[in-house]
């Protein structure tokens, strides 16, 4: 039995993994795949990949591309979610900020440097025409840290996935001033180079299993109600999220896609140079 560790955020995007693990589908191929929740998001996961604390991670595209460029010994093997991630831009309920334009010189809470919340704050600032060099950051580790930092006045705004934070907007913890969608597919599957080298067939089995699950995921009976209860979200919000979300389900990763994303990240000043695409990806279907 091959023992492998996989990580991802404890959010609705990853419920297909929960189902395949619950059904012990990987053990049928001699793989003991163990899941770990990463509340700190992509920055926490890229660190875990570097240190060998996970072998596979479901990470934000921009975060892992940047970290692989900085010599994380991993590769993107597949796009996981083809559609953009919608980042809500939040202030505390009692904040004096009323409009997105007022945040230009405000302090933004981020989970970690190199995380999605960090990189998308830069993208948002670029979109708004702000001076990127004057951005001020406060590291808060995770969503709970973001809530605490805004409440304590240690930061002024915080960006996190729109639907995950919707209950916090509904209950008055946050006010949302706007949204910033990623200009690329949002989640990819990354695997450590050592695992890809030693166990390529097992990685293919893992991909085939999760892709079979995501193909019919939206058609599962009562899946909207199940997700609503599990993730404590209103049914109409889950239904809206499902309507906006498309899983990849196993298409070979297109080098031109990664090339285009790198071009955009370079344009946004998120990365300083481009790497050869094959330094970033490993196509498991060729």
Automatic annotation (TrEMBL):
Cell compartment(s), UniProt: Periplasm
In terms of InterPro entries, this protein maps to: Ca3427-like_PBP2 (IPR054364)
Which keywords has UniProt assigned to this entry? Signal
Tell me the ranges covered by the Ca3427-like PBP domain, including all copies: 87-179
Assigned protein family: Belongs to the bacterial solute-binding protein SsuA/TauA family.
Q: What is this protein called?
A: Substrate-binding domain-containing protein
